[in-house]
Design goal:
Length: about 900
């Protein structure tokens, strides 16, 4: 590991925040677009911030060439300013400044996809978090907000489309084969929201009438040949606009709203004011290339980025430590949007289940590792490393707890006050909490700990029943494990939603001792101390508790449920989330027991109680197919791993495969019936009802292939050959890719995989799926990954393609990645180093695959440590990657 002081990047601390020395009022920029040398002329008006202790005028700049610098009309000599460590500092600047800067950028060589870069001959930008400083020298921080006017100039044939933020105010020819377009954004924004797009693009556009009666122009821009794949994105945008008007009273504030898709993008999408730039993965869709999951993902991400217009753009972050202020809140909003569009109670519950699965599998793991950090971090080395599931998904859970505590109307009042107080400002997480508290009168002082304390709290529940007094008592206690830099944790403010089920499976009426109000099904208890006892009166029978309904807080619940109690909840709970949760607890118990049995070499057996519980759920046609699908889906191998102090990936995989095969064997006729009863003939539609049927049908197919014979193989092969949509085609191919049977069928499966490539070789997003299926297949090993890396369709420079193969192998195929010989880790190190040269952000995300290396057996730890050290000792290692591997090695 590198220890030389000069190589260690600077750590930034939240406590060291200093307000900027100067504010920016207006920004005018002119771009002469050329991939070899784009010239940028910037003029900004600035004024001193007398409340700041920073007296100098400080601008940030990276990887750009400064041509000229003028202040108040006078060219500055080099002795009047200094450039060091990515900062341009002007001493003794006057209180009012007009600064003119000329820079030049080699956008065509920018493989980091941060700042201004070129993709497939087109120009794009990505300025969050600190990409704008790669365009010009600027006070590139979120609390500096100004109004921007942008002129773009370029070759008319090469770049017929010239786009930037806000409203188009002028365009025309320049008379030399070039043309221009001038854009004005009337709203103040920080530089991270700046955007520029130029190139050969086509668009689908519609005029849309807002609730107020004002008409706006909506556009979805894509490369030629993709226009037939934009309707769903357009529909999702219109649904997002309508939902935000109806749910929160928030209206689109510009004359137009644009979405642009590019295949070279580090993230899912970016909420630049009025000009959202998207990864093609979250825009392009039609039945032949997109699955039901893709359609839902597009709807969610389009909604997320649109909702940022208010929660992120109109009100933004004071500093990057407050990132969850916009991201956690907007994830909550997009989750509610997607749930509302489904429209049914079961549909909302399934959406909730899907979100919680991500939280538990990825965020709980992050909380338990060396990269653990609070929702509002205290420090960072590279801000791009903190675009994490803690900031986003746990941040959304924190917002949801406000919603749970205050109710629908109370939360809306808090949102209204938040916008009234802070529109046009850069603020902090505490400002949002204050708006919620002040609007409701609810004491939320202790709630601050959700922002400042890292880790996943554990809530232990103990119950007792006094039949004579008709009192049911529940004692809740909370703890939180140590995390890096934090040991003693103070009690959180935890909303615990609870219901009590009688012997008939019905909810009992609830009344707390000393209170006059009753609830017909659910009460929200507020756990604020280390331990509290709550007593329910008038309980005439010993109930089964349904604790943490709808997952009312991001905690681990510890309660000694019996199998009988869990079976009762699975069959009867009125809360769909806890009904699913009961099934997950039953499955997890068995998977843990079987994993231990594998390690001991004992005979494996799956008990009848569990099999029959799942049979009953599978065959209960009163339940929505989408709910039956999630109940039938076993906890992932990553989730099972969280149950062990030392992880044995091969044993976990063997145990889980045994359960899948056993269920397939015992439920074969039931699974075949579910398959036949949930066919969706006719024209494809991504609607919730059709998608739910396909989901259940394809889960049934996956199980049937876990206990393979010629008949089930032909069922999958026929579905693949005859499928009229990508959902069914990909589900069948996934099963075939993991098929282990006769040599004849294995050969036929391989032929199907090649046919899929041949049919879709010109569809980049589908070829991503082709790589992904192979990388995550049980039969894939390091040699296979290396073989696929040599395929003509693979490139490491495209983030989507790298993620489809490399990330899926490292993160979604644990049994193969964690090979005993350490070959998976050697491949990982090689690729982290290679990606570091191309794209540090992507490299750092891959580096996270080994950050919990100490959770594995000693023989694997030795290989992992060697791989981590190899990366850490690499010359010219980016601070993105160095931060991750340094924290991992120091853990």
């Amino acid at each position: 590991m590198r220890t030389d002081i000069a190589s260690q990047p600077l750590t930034i601390f939240r406590k060291d925040y200093i307000a900027p020395g100067f504010w920016v009022d207006t920004v005018e920029m002119g771009f002469d677009l050329d991939p070899i040398a784009t010239h940028v002329a910037t003029r900004m008006t600035m004024r001193r911030n007398h409340d700041s202790s920073e007296k100098n005028l400080v601008l940030f700049g990276e990887t750009i060439k400064l041509l000229q610098l003028r202040m108040n009309g006078v060219n500055l000599k080099k002795s009047a300013y200094s450039i060091a460590d990515g900062k341009l500092t002007i001493l003794n600047a006057p209180d009012v400044v007009t600064l003119e800067i000329e820079t030049v950028i080699a956008a065509g060589k920018n493989t980091s996809m941060s700042g201004l870069y070129v993709s497939n001959g087109n120009f794009f930008t990505q300025c969050e978090a600190e990409g704008f400083r790669k365009i010009t020298y600027y006070p590139d921080r979120p609390d500096v907000m100004g109004t921007f006017t942008i002129m773009l100039r370029g070759d008319k044939k090469k770049y017929p489309v010239l786009l930037s933020n806000g409203n188009l105010i002028a365009e025309g020819d320049l008379g030399d084969g070039r043309h221009y377009a001038t854009w004005e954004d009337p709203f103040k924004k920080p530089s991270y929201l700046f955007a520029l797009v130029a190139g050969k693009l086509v668009c689908q556009e519609e005029k849309y009438k807002l609730k107020s009666g004002r008409k706006v122009l909506l556009q979805v821009w894509v490369e030629a040949g993709n226009l037939d794949k934009t309707q769903h994105a357009m529909d999702s945008l219109k649904n997002s606009i309508r939902w935000d008007e109806e749910r929160f009273g928030l209206e689109l504030d510009l004359d137009r709203f644009m979405i642009v898709a590019t295949s070279d993008f580090n993230m899912g999408a970016m909420e630049n004011k009025g000009l959202n730039i998207f990864n093609t993965k979250y825009v392009l869709a039609n039945p032949s290339i997109a699955t039901d999951v893709d359609y839902a993902g597009i709807e969610s991400v389009v909604g997320h980025e649109y909702f940022h217009n208010w929660t992120g753009n109109r009100v933004t972050c004071r500093d990057w430590f407050q990132l969850s202020l916009k991201e956690g809140l907007t994830v909550f909003r997009d989750q509610e949007f997607s749930a509302d569009l489904v429209g049914t109670e079961t549909g909302r519950a399934v959406k909730r289940i899907e979100d919680v699965r991500v939280l538990r599998q990825v965020q709980f793991s992050e909380d338990a590792g060396p990269m653990a950090h609070p929702v509002r971090p205290d420090s960072f080395v590279e801000i791009n490393n903190f675009y994490t599931v803690t900031i986003y998904e746990k941040g959304a859970e924190v917002v949801r707890m406000y919603y749970t505590l205050l109710g629908h109307d109370g939360f809306r009042k808090g949102m209204d006050l938040y916008f009234k107080r802070h529109d046009g400002q850069a603020v902090a997480c505490d400002d949002f909490r204050a708006a919620m508290a002040d609007s409701s009168g609810h004491d939320l002082a202790q709630f601050e700990r959700w922002y400042s304390q890292a880790g996943t709290p554990r809530v232990k529940a103990e119950t007792s029943y006094d039949a004579d007094a008709k009192i049911y008592q529940i004692t809740l206690s909370q703890t939180c494990p140590d995390t890096p830099g934090q040991s003693k944790k103070l009690p959180f403010h935890i909303p615990v939603a609870i219901g009590l089920l009688g012997a008939d499976g019905k909810d009992l009426k609830l009344q707390l001792e000393g209170q006059t109000t009753t609830s017909n099904n659910t009460l929200v208890l507020e756990l604020t101390a280390e331990s509290q006892t709550f007593r329910f009166t008038g309980i005439t029978q010993k109930p089964t508790p349904s604790i943490l309904r709808n997952f009312s807080a991001p905690v681990v619940l510890e309660y000694a449920y019996t199998d009988e109690e869990l079976g009762h909840l699975l069959a009867n709970d009125s809360d769909p989330f806890n009904r699913w949760e009961a099934g997950q607890r039953l499955a997890t118990r068995r998977l843990v027991k079987l994993t231990n049995a594998v390690q001991k070499g004992e005979e494996l057996e799956l008990d009848a109680m569990f099999i029959e519980a799942l049979r009953a759920t599978l065959n209960d046609t009163t339940l929505d197919p989408s709910f039956r699908e999630v109940v039938l889906t076993l906890p992932s191998e990553a989730m099972i791993a969280e149950e062990f102090a030392v992880v044995d990936p091969q044993s976990i995989h063997t145990a889980r495969q045994f359960v899948r095969a056993s269920l397939a064997q015992h439920l074969k006729s039931d699974l075949l019936s579910a398959y036949e009863n949930n066919l969706t003939p006719g024209k494809y539609s991504p609607d919730a009802v059709s998608a739910a049927k396909r989901g259940l049908k394809n889960v049934a197919l996956a199980y049937l292939l876990a206990w393979p014979d010629d008949a089930t193989f032909m069922l999958a092969k026929t579905q693949f050959d005859e499928a009229q949509n990508m959902t069914d085609r990909l589900a069948a191919l996934s099963g075939l890719s993991n098929f282990s049977g006769s040599a004849k069928n294995t050969k036929a499966a391989a032929q199907s995989l090649q046919k899929f490539y041949k049919d879709f070789k010109n569809e980049a997003l589908v070829i991503d799926k082709w790589f992904m299926l192979q990388a995550s297949a049980y039969t894939c090993d390091v040699a296979k990954v290396r073989e696929l890396m040599k395929h003509s369709a693979f490139t490491l420079s495209n983030p989507n393609r790298a993620r489809s193969l490399i990330f899926n192998f490292c993160n979604a195929n644990p049994a193969r990645f964690h090979a005993a010989d350490g070959s998976g880790y050697a491949l990982w190190a090689e690729l982290v180093i290679a990606l570091n040269k191309l794209n540090p952000q992507v490299a750092a995300r891959l580096a996270r695959s080994l950050d919990r290396w100490k959770k594995y057996p000693q023989n694997l730890q030795a290989h992992m440590k060697a791989a981590l050290q190899k990366v850490a000792e690499t010359k010219k290692l980016s601070k993105d990657v160095l931060e991750v591997v340094s924290k991992a090695l120091a853990s």
